[in-house]
Amino acid sequence: MDIFNLELLNVNAKLVTYRGRSALQLLERDITSDEQSIAILQGSTFKDGVIETEIAGAPRADASEGMRGFIGIAFRVQPRASQFECFYLRPTNGRAEDQLRRNHAAQYISHPDYPWYKLREENPGVYESYTDLVPGEWTRIKIVVTGIRAQLYVNGAEQPCLLVNDLKLGKTKGLIGLWIGAGTEAYFSEPSVTPSQI
Questions:
Q1: Among 87, 98, 121, 155, which residue's beta carbon has the most beta carbons within 10 A?
Q2: Residue pLDDT, tens place only, 178-192
Q3: What is the pTM of this model?
């Protein structure tokens, strides 16, 4: 991962070793900003195909109690992150004692018109689901995108934990981004992209 080939929007990035792996660490630059916190991989034009990476996320030490360690991958990202599709995880929800929180462990959003709270209010349970997660531990994710459909796989599972059959931006293309939410300490390692040959 070339730190010099990233467009950084409201994030600071540095190369580190985290839990035995070379990784890119992302931290929000301004926790009070409404700007998306994302590192966009320049030259990563993506329409359909497979995105895989290892991620580790947890709430920062100074995060408020409601923060979950939000971490994910944005795809079909438009200039300056004006629009994008995204799958992300809430690691502290994965083994919560409350079942409803567990059901909110994996999430799909489409920025800017379909944030999580709008999707949850209008379509409860459709754009988020349960998956087993541990905060701060390496988690392998795979995203498979075809047309207006996308699937999220976690930790090598044969079946996706989340299916989206109506990507809100339609059949678009764009860049790939490493996305974090409020109050998150995030690590990304070994990203790979396999474009569809169709």
A1: 87
A2: 999 999 999 999 999
A3: 0.95
